[in-house]
């Protein structure tokens, strides 16, 4: 009967190393043949999986720990295991207590002092808050702002959490970035564009608004408004490069209208190139809402 890694190594979901294969009775010739025909593929470090599991983040995480038993999954890999919306770069990112050279799809970082890990899906992983802060500090700026908006919308981390974490990261990579993000979270601006929108409102002397506000209706949160004028029940949303309609966006806007709110969508070009038009549009919407 053909050797099935899933049955031979159920605890690692069929992920294995050459020594594990040898111990299970797989000869070197069979191992070379399976790899040559790509029925099995090298995943990361010294780990091997069936071809159909090559894109699995969990298999990659298990492979990293099989290669380096002291590894703690971190950054993008930990974020994906936690279900955070980051891009999968096909690499297992790990923390190690000593310096290691990168290996196949395996990227180590050395931590300077003790790092606590939790077991997530059976592998040691940085906890949710640590993972979020690590990603905010080290991911590309646009992706970090996007992640901040996502975690703030779900109230997974707040400005005070970020400020406290910054105090414990003196001298570490990304502290300046974290300060910028913490300031944005404190003011309710969860992107560079939202910061610019706030500046436009302040410069125009428009008051009576709140930022990053949950809107509740019939006992549940309908949305978090980028900017809310509560007296006029006017919601202003910053939509980035352009307004992308989706079924989720349309349903959210429909529910907000049902709850008595008007929704005004603004793009990056409108806020940065034509701020006077934004001011005029918001003032017109406020006057209409307050007069009705």
From TrEMBL:
Concerning InterPro entries, the annotation shows: DUF559, Restrct_endonuc-II-like
Q: Which Pfam families match?
A: DUF559
Top-level taxonomic group? Bacteria
Q: What is this protein called?
A: DUF559 domain-containing protein
Tell me the organism's taxonomic lineage. Answer: Bacteria, Bacillati, Actinomycetota, Actinomycetes, Micrococcales
Q: Where along the sequence do coiled-coil regions lie?
A: none
- Give the organism, scientific name: Ruania alkalisoli
Domain DUF559 stretches: 228-286
């Amino acid at each position: 009967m053909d050797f099935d890694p899933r049955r031979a190594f159920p605890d690692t979901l069929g992920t294995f190393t050459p020594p594990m294969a040898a111990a299970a009775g797989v000869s070197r010739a069979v191992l070379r043949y399976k790899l040559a025909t790509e029925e099995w593929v090298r995943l990361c470090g010294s780990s091997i999986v069936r071809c159909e599991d090559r894109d699995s983040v969990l298999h990659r995480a298990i492979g990293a720990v099989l290669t380096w038993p002291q590894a703690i999954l971190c950054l993008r890999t930990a974020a994906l295991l936690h279900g955070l919306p980051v891009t999968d770069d096909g690499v297992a990112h790990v923390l190690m207590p000593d310096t290691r050279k990168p290996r196949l799809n395996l990227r180590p970082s050395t931590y300077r002092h003790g790092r606590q890990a939790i077991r997530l899906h059976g592998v040691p992983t940085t906890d949710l808050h640590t993972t979020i802060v690590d990603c905010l500090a080290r991911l590309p700026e646009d992706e970090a702002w996007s992640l901040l908006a996502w975690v703030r919308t779900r109230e997974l981390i707040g400005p005070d959490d970020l400020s406290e974490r910054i105090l414990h990261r003196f001298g570490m990579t990304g502290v300046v970035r974290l300060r910028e993000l913490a300031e944005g979270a404190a003011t309710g601006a969860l992107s560079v564009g939202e910061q610019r929108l706030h500046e436009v409102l302040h410069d125009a002397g428009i008051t009576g608004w709140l930022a990053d506000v949950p809107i509740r209706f019939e006992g549940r949160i309908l949305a978090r408004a980028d900017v809310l004028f509560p007296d006029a029940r006017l919601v202003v949303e910053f939509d980035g490069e352009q307004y992308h309609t989706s079924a989720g966006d349309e349903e959210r806007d429909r529910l907000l209208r049902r709850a008595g709110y008007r929704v005004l969508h603004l793009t990056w070009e409108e806020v940065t190139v034509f701020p006077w038009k934004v001011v005029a549009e918001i003032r017109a919407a406020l006057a209409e809402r307050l007069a009705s």
